[in-house]
Structure formats: C-alpha cells, structure tokens
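**User:** I keep going back and forth on a fold encoding question. It is easy to fool oneself when nobody else works the same problem. Could you pick a protein and write out its sequence and tokenised fold? Could you put it straight underneath, so I can go through it closely?

**Assistant:**
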Amino acid sequence: MTRLCATAVCFIALCSISAFGQTQTPQAAAPAAALTPGQLRHEYKQKTDHAYYKLSKHGFQGFHCTADPDWDELYRNVKTNAYMMQDLKPALKQTHFEITVGATGASSVTHQLGELPRSAEVADRLRSTADGMDDVVNGALQSWAGLAARILLPDADDDSYDVALSEGKYVLRHHETNSNLRLVVDSAGRLEQLEESNSRATITLHPHWDETAEGLILAGYEASLKVGDETVQKMRVGYVYVELHGMRLPQLITLWIDTPEGVLSGPIAFGKYKFPEKTAVSGDAK
C-alpha cells in the first residue's frame, strides 16, 4: 500500500471533523471532455500544482516537537475497567511522546514510559496504548504531510496512473500488484476522496480543506476501514495550525475513533518545536 494508507491501516484511516468549516468558493468550470490522455494529464497537473499550501515554498526542512494527549478527555466516553483506569491514566500522563518530521515529510513518533504500574495487566495495557498512540499520531502526521510537505498527487508524466474524467472530476487509478489506489480530484484541483483496496480490505478517506491565501491546507478527514462488506472501524481527525517561522504547522490534532469499548475522542497538543539550524531557532506552539 502507499505510505499514506499503510500507516492508516495500523489504526485505521484518518479524517476530518465536520466542525472544521470550509470557506465555500465557486468551483472552476468543469474540464472539457474531449482531451487526449496526455492533454488530460497536463490539465489535471496544472490544476493541482497551484491548489495546495506547500511547505517547500517556505524553506521547510523538518522539525522536532512533543505531543501531549489529553487522556482525561480521550477516555471520557470509553467503557473500561474502572480499577484498571485508576492505575492506567496516571501512568499514561507520565508517558512522554516525541515527534520528528524530516524535510520530505517522513515522520517518526516515539515515547518514553514513566514508572510502570505494579500490575502486569495494567503495565501491558500501558505499553499497548502508548504504541497505539504512536501509530495514530504518526498516521495523522503522514496524512498532513502528504499534501503539505511533499506531493501526494502524481505528476502528469507518471504513466503508472490512469487519468479519466467522470462527471467533471478527475479520477486517477494506480494499479499495483497487491492493491488498487483510486483518487478523485474536483475540477479546481481539490482532492475529494482517496480509496485503497486489496483482496482483504478497503480504506476510504475523505479530506476536508481550509482555504488560505497560499492554497488549500488540510483541515482534517474522515475515514473508514471495510473488510468485505462490513465497515469495521471509523475515524476522524481534525487539525489546528500555528504559524512558526513563516510556516503553518500542526498545533493540535483532534481525534474521534470508534472502538469496541466506546468512542475515543479528544485533542493531542503539539509543542516545544525545534527546527534544524538552517531554518531557525526553537519555538513553542503552546
């Protein structure tokens, strides 16, 4: 699977909270239908080249920061053993999460556990929860970076993709050995849907965008994982940004995850930003 969706499979797909509003603007005129494949690729690329906010235009070289999940809020609607939570929550609050994002948008999330609970069961739950949070935060970062730090949408001369028109929208398909990727882009160059499937499952992601003077920036997205005909998990992710060193970077990620134990919902704050020496000094998003 692609780097964007492969991460999402670990904890499911990512997506935006509907409360993150978008400014409605008139859509560009629908592209003409009678175009050669080469002309269609060129037209599609012209639309997407200038549609998005791109960190590369601001000298982005990566960053390091911390992540601080609000465990009280995240577990507010989760039904779990009260005695376990009595020991688990304090241990989670002592867990420190560190994020590193490179110049291409590749990210890694690590954590350092505090003092382990005496109960082996609670300690195991602590480790698995911290590992799961690593995956969630990393998936959210990779999804953000897909259109901010690097180009997720393919180049016009990338012949591994087929581009077609359907109801005035560009439909891109990439056929790999083990999976199929389908992107739907509107006539203004805005990505509306990403779907990736293999013989076992299908991930569908619907991005939502905020408009800025410098292009579209990811406000969030909603996603679902379907195995066969059954939807087995849904997730939403929203983004709040802060401007640091002339760049818009995530300050807050808001999660909504449907789990067997209930809805895991709440914010994760990013702070204590540090940048490579070439791009500048430290900043703090908090």
Observations:
- The CA atoms of residues 25 and 211 lie 9 Å apart.
- Confidence is low (pLDDT under 50) at residues 1-29.
